[in-house]
Amino acid sequence: MTQTQVQTVLEVKDLRTQFDTQDGMVHAVNGVSFELKTGEFLGVVGESGSGKSVTMMSLLRLIPMPPGEIVSGEADFGGADLLTIDDEALRDIRGGRIGFIFQDPMTSLNPVLTVGYQIIESLRLHTDLTDAERRPRARELLHLVGIPDAEARLKNYPHELSGGMRQRVMIAMALACDPEILIADEPTTALDVTIQAQIIQIVRDLREKLGTAVIWITHDLAVVAGLADRVLVMYGGQIVEEAPVNGLYANPQHPYTEGLLGALPRLDQKGQDLVNIKGQPPNLYAYPTSCPFSPRCPYVMDKCLAENPPLLDIGNGRKTACWWDMDNNRPRYGS
Amino acid sequence: MAAETVPASETAIAPNGDVLVSVRDLKKHFPIMKGVFRRQVGSVRAVDGISFDIYKGETLGLVGESGSGKSTTGRVILQLELATQGQVKFEDVELTETTGDRLRSLRPRMQMIFQDPHASLNPRMTVSRIVGEPLTEHNRSKGEDRRKRIDELLSLVGLEPKHANRYPHEFSGGQRQRIGIARAIALNPDFIVADEPIAALDVSIQAQVVNLLEDLQEVLGLTYLFISHDLSMVRHIADRVAVMYLGKIMELADVDTLYTNPQHPYTQALLSAVPVPDPVIESTRERVILEGDIPSPANPPPGCPFNTRCPAAVERCVTEVPEWRELEPGHWVACHFAENIHLVSIPTG
C-alpha cells in the first residue's frame, strides 16, 4: 500500500465507557486513545471482555444508554466530535461515512426484508442516487463482494443465504456509501475457515480498490497478521500495546502480548509448547488503580500494583503500557 | 499453576500399536420427515461410510468444517446415537450390537467432554454433585470415600477442593470446562471423546485446558478422539489426524505427514486457509481460495463429495466415488489423483 498523504481520519482521546449493572458498575473502557490514518488497516486484538467492541461501538454511540454511559472522551472525525454531535448528524455518519460490520450477519440483517431492499435503503438514506440508479448500484456492490448472480440474490431473504454469503451482503451494505472508515467487529468469527479465507481475500481486494480505512476487531492474532498495518492489543478495557504489525509479532513489548503469542498454537510449527497464562481475565467492577494484567503477569513488580502504567511511547511507532522494559530486562521508570 | 510450559506430546504412535477403537464403514443417516403423515422424504447423511482405528494411548484429531459430521462421528462411536450401518469395535466388543446392562457396564470406560461448558453442566447441581454423579451412578464409592475421590478429581484438574460446594455459574468458562473434565475422568475411563472442548474459550484459557488434557493423558494413560475445527490446535495436540468433509474422511495420516505433505486437495486447501500469527509468512503465502460453500448433507453431490469445490476436479470425480486407499503405510486418502495434485505449498517450521 502506498500512502501519499498521511492524514488522520479519526482521533480518539481518553474514551471511558461504563455500564451500570445489577452487580455494580462495570468499567468496560478505561481511557482509550488512538488514531486512525487515511487508508490504514488497524487491527484491534483482545479477548472477550477486553473492551474492544465496546470501544468501537461507543464511538458511534451504538451501546445501549442506559445502562451504558460514555463518561469521558473525544472522537474527532473530520472536525466533528462523534461523542457530542447531535443525533441527526450522527445518523448521517453511521452507515454513510462510517460503515459497520457485525459478527453475526443473521442478527444484523432484517429477516423480513429482501437483501436488495436493505442495500437500497442504505443508498436512499445516504446517497443522492435516483430511484433508477440505486438498483444497478446494489447489483454492482454484490458483484464487488464476489456474489455471483447478483440480480437473483437481491430478491433473496437473509435466511436463504449461507453464513458466508450473508457476511458478504453485510460488507456490501457497509461499503454502499463509500465510507471513509469501515469498522468490522469479528466479521469472520462465526464462519468456517475456508469461508473466512474467502472473506479476508475480498476485504484485501476491496482495500486495494477503494482505499477505505479499516478497523478490524478480532480475538485471533493470526487473522490480522496478514491484514493489518498496525495493531492495538487490548486488555481490561485499556490499550496495553500498540505497534506496527511486523514489530508486534516479532518482538512483543507487553507481557500480555508475549503470553498470547506463546499460548497460540501454530499451523506451521510442531511440538511447540503452549505457554500457560495463569489465572483469569479481570472482572472490571472497579476502576483500575493497578495494572490490570498484574495478577497474571510473570514480570510483576511492586510498582505495577501501586500505579497503573500509562501507554508509554517507546519509539519506532510503538507504545506499551508496562513498567517492565522487556528488551533490556529492567524497569522502565527511575534510572 | 505458574507461567510454565508443558511439553507437547511428540510421541507418534506406531501404526501397529494396540487398537482400542475400530470403526468400519460407519454410517449415520438422519431421516427427513414431511407432510401430515410424517413420511420420510430423504435423509441427512451426517456420517456416510467411514473407517479408521484409534490406537491405545494416542490422540486422534478429527477436523472438518461445520456440517462435516465430526461431532456425529464422536457421538455414534460412544453409542449416544445409534449407527445406521457399520461397526464400532471397542477392544473386542462390538458396540453397535451391545445393549442394556452390557453396554452400561462399558460406559465408564468411554466418556465425553462437551463443547459448551455452560450447557453441559446442570446449573442446579453443586460441583461436588456434578463430579460425583458418575461415582454414584456406577456404584463406585460412597460417603467419605466419595468425598475424597471428588477432592482428588478437582485437584487433578486444577480446581480447589474447597470450591466443591459452589454452583457452575460461580465459575468462569475455563474453570467450568475443568469441571466437565473432572466428571469425564471420574470413573477412570480408557477413552475420551473431546468434542470441540476449547471452542468456547478465550485464547489464553484454551492453552490452559489443552495443557491440562495433555497432562491427564500422560498421568492416566488416556486415549483421545479430539474433535475440533481448529487446525492449529490439532497440530499441537494430535498424534494422527483425520480430515472429514460431508460425512466422509478425505485423508488420514500421522500429524507431521498430514501438515507437511497433505495429499488430498481438500486438506491442502483447508490448511492454506488457516492464518498463521506471523506477518512475514502471511505476506508471502500461497493460498487456495475455495469457491462456494459446503453442500448440504441432505443432498450430497455424486462421486467425490468435494467435486463441487475442488479446483482439480475432472469428469471422473463426478461419476466415480474415490476409493479409500492407503498411499503409504498409515497414510490414507480418498482421491483418485492424490499422487498428482499439488495445489499449494504449506508453510512448515
Written description of the protein model:
The complex is a heterodimer of chains A (335) and B (349). With 335 residues, chain A is α/β, with parallel strands linked by helices. Chain A has helices spanning 52-59, 87-93, 105-108, 115-126, 131-144, 150-154, 163-175, 193-210, 221-225, 245-250, 255-263, 302-306; strands at 8-21, 24-37, 41-45, 68-77, 80-81, 98-101, 181-185, 213-218, 230-235, 238-244, 274-275, 312-315, 318-320, 324-325, 330-331. In chain A, helix 4 (115-126) crosses helix 5 and helix 5 crosses helix 7 (163-175). Chain B is built from eleven helices and 13 strands. Chain B is an alpha/beta fold and 349 residues long. The two termini of chain B are 29 Å apart. Classes of the chains: A alpha/beta (335), B alpha/beta (349). The interface between A and B is large, with 49 and 58 residues. Strand 11 (274-275) of chain A pairs antiparallel with strand 1 of chain B, so a sheet runs across the interface.
Widest β-sheet, arrangement of strands of chain B = 7-8-9-4-10-11-13-12
Spell out the helices and strands of chain B N to C.
EEEEHEEHEHHHEHEHEEHHHHEE
Annotation, overall tally of beta strands of chain B? 13
User: What coarse outline of chain B follows from CA principal-axis ratios?
Assistant: globular
- Helicity range of the residues of chain A? 25-40%
Number of extended strands of chain A: 15
Task: Specify the biggest β-sheet of chain A.
Answer: 8 strands, mixed
Unreliable runs of chain B: 1-15
Give the low-confidence spans of chain A. none
**Terminus-to-terminus distance of chain B:** 29 Å
Radius of gyration of chain B: 21 Å
Quote the distance from N terminus to C terminus of chain A. 40 Å
Integer-rounded radius of gyration of chain A? 21 Å
Mean of all residue-level pLDDT scores of chain B: 89
**If interface size is counted as residues with C-beta under 8 Å from the partner's C-beta, which chains form the largest one?**
A-B, 49 and 58 residues
What quaternary form is this?
A: heterodimer
Derived structural class of chain A? alpha/beta
* Mean pLDDT level of chain A: 88
Which percent range describes the beta-strand content of chain B? 15-25%
Number of helices of chain B: 11
Query: What's the arrangement of strands in the largest beta sheet of chain A?
Result: 6-7-8-3-9-10-13-12
